[in-house]
Amino acid sequence: MSRIVVVSNRVPVPAGNAGHAGGLAVALLGLMESRGGLWFGWSGAVTERVGAPGFVQRGAVGYATLDLTEAEHGGYYTGYSNGVLWPMLHSLPHLMSFRRQDLDTYRRVNRRFADNLVPLLRRDDLIWVHDYHLMSFPAALRARGVGNPTGFFLHVPFPGPEAASVAPGIRGLVQDLLTTDLLGFQTTADRDNFAAAATGFTDARRTGDAVIEAGGREIRLGVFPAEIAAQEFAATAAAEARAEPARLLERSLGGQALLLGVDRLDPTKGLPERLDAFRRLVARRPARSLALLQIAAPSREDVAVYRRLREELDTAAGAINSEFGEPDWLPLRLLARPQPRETLAGFMRQARVGVVTPLRDGMNLVAKEYIAAQDPADPGVLVLSRFAGAAAQLGSALLVNPHDAESMAEALAQALDMPLAERQARWQVAWGAIAGASPEGWGESFLRALAPEELDRLPVAGRA
Ligand code: GDG
Asked: What distance in angstroms lies between residue 364's CA and the mean position of ligand 1's atoms?
């Protein structure tokens, strides 16, 4: 039976320093455990000299990780991945900061990763590469003679060819991705944008909705929206709504309607725009009638844009509270610290309004978590950016344009005032879209598309 080899920038090494594995990672590990697998990528450590991969084996899954040098971290990770590709892929080109040597380092690190993976591969492994850090990795594998079935999934959006072409180097990376067998995207829009870039930037031809021909080979294109464990999250939220953190929050609200935002502190998440809309909402509602709790967990603090964003948010939050606050009430609670996952689930169930308004997002799992967390008898309302991938599945939410603060404020007011019957009807449709899905199902459908002949031998774990 084929092993599954997952390659991603970060590796969820058990009890390692890579942090707690998220839902998608847990699902992939589940699939790997039943067939045997190898997870390969960056250790998260920055060291002085490059060495051989570190290796940990846990049951049927091995974890092989490489450290980065300071220069590699600066060029590959902070520089080109997060300073050029991330802003470009989210259509925020003004946040790009390009240096030619960072692109060279990016490509060099991708090649070094390939050099180190090749000796660990077996003839019938299925290789699944994740995300924008590793766009030239599949071509580096092919250049080293690896002919195994290889798929790539992009967790973030792909913009139209004109917008994509602002990133120096992107043409070569698109070409490199055409060495895979399967390319997966969050939405049909991302898939079609990528296909337009591939046919515009290279000699490739699109020969079907889901097929590109390049270099005499067929590359399949698929749409695989990332999913959450909806049933499990719903149960956690129901239990946590009675736990201490949720009870303390409820007591502190004293009947105010709670609006909730949960995001990584990232320029794509539209946080300044959200606070602008909230300021307009607060200005026209009675004092002490509502409160926004915004959790903004810091990320990528070594990137200057992220540090400036933190300052901008602190300033905007202070301005709202000083303008509208009362001695016994502040409208905004901004927490730049991560909270436990279970606690967040309980808060989501308490919130009358889930505010998920990124400028652009591949999927946005918080939108799905908010829906899963609701009490079916008395659900809250999701206010969702139409530029999140999740909007393709959650069209019954109140969809907003995050660049239009005034209409976002109106949508928040509409959400607060929405009658129970309408809240229930909208929630039912949204729940119907996610209730049967699971991260395991997401992983399985990608692997089935990558290697259909393996279909019978894949486990059916997680089918809700
Ligand atoms: C990328 C794409 C795509 C947030 N704050 C805390 C916390 N979270 C959890 C959320 C959610 C997850 O982190 C964030 O997932 P998102 O999907 O919203 O966003 P990205 O991290 O940008 O992920 C995205 C995703 O990949 C999957 O393909 O959906 O579009 O950008 O689960 O609840 N968790 C904890 N504390 C926090 O403070 N424990």
From this structure: 7
* CA 264 to ligand 1 center in whole angstroms: 7
pLDDT in tens, 336-365: 999 999 999 999 999 999 999 999 999 999
Can you give the pTM of this predicted structure?
0.95
For residue 17, what pLDDT is reported? 47
Domains of the chain by range and CATH?
Answer: 4-227+439-457 (3.40.50.2000), 230-434 (3.40.50.2000)
Give yes or no: 361 in active site: yes
pLDDT score recorded for residue 387: 98
Nearest ligand 1 atom to alpha carbon 388: 30
pLDDT above 60 for 51: yes
Which of 306, 366, 438 to probe ligand 1 with, by most ligand atoms within 8 A of CB? 366
Q: Which of 90, 155, 190, 276 is the catalytic position?
A: 155
pLDDT (tens digit per residue) in 275-322: 999 999 999 999 999 999 999 999 888 888 899 999 999 999 999 999
Q: Is 338 in the pocket of ligand 1 (CB under 6 A)?
A: yes
Q: What confidence category does residue 1 fall into, taking pLDDT thresholds of 50, 70 and 90? A: confident
pLDDT at 461 over 50: no
| Distance from Cα 456 to the centre of ligand 1, integer Å | 32
- Taking a C-beta distance cutoff of 8 angstroms, is the pair 230, 437 a contact? yes
